[in-house]
Each structure stands twice: as C-alpha cells, then as structure tokens.
Amino acid sequence: MCDSVEDFPKNYSVEAVEKRHLHHIIVDDNHGILYCYIPKVACTTWKRFMLILRHGEPYRDPMSFKRVHVDPKLKFLGGNSRNEFKAKLKHYRKFVFVRDPFVRLISAYRNKLQGYEKSFYERYGRLLLKKYANQSNPAEKEDEVLASGVFPSFHNFIQYLIDPETRKPFDDHWRPMYQLCYPCLIKYDFIGHQETLSEDAEHFLRILKLDNDIKLPPAYINVTTKDVVSAWFKPVPIEDRRKLYQIYEMDFKLFGYPKPVELLES
Asked: Which residues fall within 8 angstroms of residue 26, CB to CB, at 6 or more apart?
C-alpha cells in the first residue's frame, strides 16, 4: 500500500501482494490478461470484455452477456495459489480504468441512493435519513418509500462518508479506487480513464491486437462537466468538501486528477 503519493510508483512488490489485494482482479489465462474492476467506472463494459476473451474465438457480441456481474465464468485472481498469482502478476498484462473521484461519487449516489434500490436503501438509505436528515422513522416497505419520495440527499451521503463513526471499509461503489486495485503494489501496464473511454479502449485493443476482432459497445458520453459537479456540491459546506477530499486525495494524486480547487477554496 501507499502511505503517501511519494511512494508511487517506487515500491512495486509482487512479494508483498496478498490474496486480500486480489478481490477485484479478473483473470483470463488464454490471453494472459488481468483486469481490476472498479464499480462506477465502466466495469460492465470491461467485464463483458473479459467474458468475451474467456469464451474464445469466434469472439461473441459483448451485448450477448447479460448478467455480467454475477456470471460464474468470470474468474478471479484470488482463486489461484500464491505461487500462481505471483507469477501471473509478473507476466500477465494488467489494466484498470479510473474516473474523477468526485464524479464517481456523484454517479454512485445517483445510482444507489437517490432512488429506491432495495438492498442499498435497507443498508444505507434509512440509516442516512435517520442520522443526517432528522427522519426518526423513515419508510421501510417499497411502496411506502416510493410514495413518500424521501431519499437521502447528496449532502447526507457526504456526511456519512466523512463521519468518523462510519464503519470502514466503505462499500465498493464509493471505496477509494486505490484501495480496490492497489496501484502501489501492482504495476498496471495500462491505466485508462472514464473521461476518454472510447479513445483509451481503442488504444488498448490495438495494443492487444484485438481491435479488428472485438468491438466494444459505444461508450457512455460523460456529461458531468465542472459546472455540473459544482451544482452537486453547492449544498455541501466547504468544510465537508475539504474533509471529503482528504479521504479521496490519494485517488486524485495517483491517477492524475487535478485537485478541485474551485470546490475547496470557495
């Protein structure tokens, strides 16, 4: 792990990698590829890609895979013995896609907490409403929840993240990216970005010499501009924004995202 950004990328050490660092790494032995998936960063697209590779030639249409997040054909590196996963970390091509940390949080909130998603409402939504929105008895049953239309606000979500009493580690959808893919222990050969997903995906497929064989679906166009991000954070007090940045600072620095000064100093 990196204790500070100065440690990156100086202390890569396959010997220091343990199985607990491999929960998000999907392996394809046929092509010698490892992919570390990060929720809310095009992971559905790239899981489809890994399934295409696993099924082999002739390569299937990516959209033919439906339940990609629970597909048993996805194989994870942690299922290998220690000697096996160390060898694969040394010799396989490793890639990951990342995203602006605050934009990723907005996406996670919109997808999991802004509306009713049963498991997330039961686990987090009611808690956030009780603790941060002065809702003493939030609705429990789905029809009551939908009828009330009351969900945690984005600020409530931020309050939860910065609360020192919040249980760690976070849910994977908002856990810092470096805590999912461990870039200080694992030397990734390719780090792509959500903001340039189409271009990066094409470039990566060319590197693998698969650009003529596999066509990924069109990338979702990221319309989360600085103005949109500012609008989301407007209700969040500046001190809360600064505390939030401290939690995700390593993601900003390790993956090349500029510090959002406009959110932290005004």
From this structure: 34, 35, 36, 37, 47, 50, 74, 75, 76, 77
3-state secondary structure of 193: strand
Handedness of CA 191, 197, 202, 208 (dihedral sign): positive
Kindly report, residue by residue over 6-43, the tens digit of the pLDDT: 555 556 778 899 999 999 999 999 999 999 999 999 99
Q: Are 68 and 47 in contact, with CB atoms under 8 Å apart?
A: yes
**Half-sphere CA count of 39, side-chain side, radius 13 A:** 18
Which strands form 25-28's sheet, in the order they lie side by side? 25-28, 33-36, 93-98, 190-193
- C-beta of residue 187 within 8 angstroms of C-beta of residue 12: yes
**What is the enclosing helix (H) or strand (E) of 76?**
none
Q: Tens digits of per-residue pLDDT, 45-75?
A: 999 999 999 988 888 888 888 888 888 889 9
Query: For 7, which DSSP code?
Result: G
Report if pTM > 0.70: yes
Look-up: residue for tokens 């002065």?
A: 134
What is the distance between the terminal CA atoms of the chain, rounded to a whole angstrom? 33
* 8 Å CB contact between 99 and 38: yes
